[in-house]
């Protein structure tokens, strides 16, 4: 037990410790403030150098009020969605340094006459949840690094000029609800890895050049409500596993090259409202009470 004579020494030690802790807390807060300031400055610089908002180029301090820009309370940009009637991004798409937007959650740029390939920086946006680049002139292959966007809920690349195979890494997007790749020039098989997307409800792959059979594993995607793979070069039988998709409301496999009979398991789809298997090589008879309960 400390004596009375030791009390001044203990008080001095405690005072010094408290003082040092205050310095540490203050310096930590200062570093955080500097980091936030640097982040906001880099976002403003990226907007300025992109040339997208040329009429606002000297007012980056007011960027949160720009059309198509949404910020959080700290002033960091969380959404970039300029309406195409307000500005056309066009060939300036690649001029944006997307790596500066660490808090970006929504990138919405349909109908902006975008050209070229997808900028690689988009694949490292840690907070991105909604990515819509539909109805543009983008081309080339989809980068496999898109599979790193683990928070992504919606991915829409429809109506572009993408080619070659669909990267199986998209199967890593476990939070994905909507996947729209229709109206492109994708080829090769549908990756079975996509069947790991347990939360997916909408799957659109129509109007491509996809080949091979529908993967049997599609029956594992229990939340699917809409599937459209029409106007491709698919072949083989209709998977019986489709009968497991109890939530399915629309199944469109029109004008591909599937063959064989309609599996009786389709009759398990009691929520089905739209079934289109036309312009295929369907054989046998339809047992109405089994297929349409």
Shape: elongated
Biggest sheet layout: 10 strands, mixed
CATH-level-4 superfamily name of one domain: Ribonuclease Inhibitor
Give, in spatial order, the strands making up the sheet with the most strands: 1-2-3-5-7-9-11-13-15-17
- Count of extended strands: 18
The CATH topology label of one domain is: Leucine-rich repeat, LRR (right-handed beta-alpha superhelix)
Provide the gyration radius in Å: 27 Å
**Approximately how much beta-strand content do the residues carry?**
15-25%
One letter per element, helices H and strands E, the order comes to HEEEEEEEEEEEEEEEEEEH
Please tally the helical runs, counting DSSP H or I stretches of 4 or more residues. Answer: 2
Quick overview:
The protein is an alpha/beta fold and 293 residues long.
What does this entry look like structurally?
The protein has 2 helices and 18 strands. Strand 1 and strand 2 form a beta hairpin. With 293 residues, the chain is α/β, with parallel strands linked by helices. The longest helix has 44 residues.
Top keywords for this entry?
alpha/beta, Leucine-rich repeat, LRR (right-handed beta-alpha superhelix)
Write the layout of secondary structure elements.
Elements: H1 7-50, E1 69-71, E2 77-80, E3 106-108, E4 115-116, E5 130-132, E6 137-140, E7 154-156, E8 161-164, E9 178-180, E10 185-188, E11 202-204, E12 209-212, E13 226-228, E14 233-236, E15 250-252, E16 257-260, E17 274-276, E18 281-282, H2 288-291
Parallel strand pairs: 2-3, 3-5, 4-6, 5-7, 6-8, 7-9, 8-10, 9-11, 10-12, 11-13, 12-14, 13-15, 14-16, 15-17, 16-18
Antiparallel strand pairs: 1-2
């Amino acid at each position: 037990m400390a004596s009375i004579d030791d009390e001044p020494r203990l008080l001095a030690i405690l005072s010094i410790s408290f003082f040092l802790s205050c310095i540490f807390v203050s310096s930590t807060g200062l570093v955080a403030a500097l980091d936030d300031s640097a982040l906001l400055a880099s976002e403003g610089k990226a907007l300025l150098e992109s040339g997208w908002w040329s009429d606002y180029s000297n007012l980056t301090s007011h960027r949160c009020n720009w059309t198509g820009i949404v910020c959080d309370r700290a002033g960091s940009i969380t959404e970039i969605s300029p309406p195409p009637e307000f500005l056309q991004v066009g060939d300036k798409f690649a001029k944006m340094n997307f790596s500066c937007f660490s808090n970006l959650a929504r990138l919405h740029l349909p109908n902006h006459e975008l050209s070229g390939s997808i900028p690689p920086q988009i694949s490292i946006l840690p907070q991105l949840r909604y990515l819509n680049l539909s109805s543009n002139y983008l081309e080339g292959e989809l980068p496999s690094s898109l599979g790193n966007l683990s928070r992504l809920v919606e991915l829409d690349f429809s109506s572009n000029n993408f080619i070659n195979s669909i990267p199986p890494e998209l199967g890593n997007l476990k939070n994905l609800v909507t996947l729209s790749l229709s109206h492109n020039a994708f080829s090769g098989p549908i990756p079975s890895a996509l069947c790991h997307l347990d939360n997916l409800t909408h799957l659109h792959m129509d109007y491509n050049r996809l080949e091979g059979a529908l993967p049997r594993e599609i029956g594992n995607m229990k939340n699917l409500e809409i599937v459209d793979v029409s106007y491709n070069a698919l072949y083989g039988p209709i998977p019986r596993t489709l009968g497991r998709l109890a939530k399915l409301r629309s199944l469109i496999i029109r004008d591909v090259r599937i063959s064989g009979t309609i599996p009786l398991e389709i009759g398990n789809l009691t929520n089905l409202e739209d079934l289109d298997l036309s312009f295929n090589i369907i054989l046998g008879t339809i047992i109405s009470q089994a297929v349409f309960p």
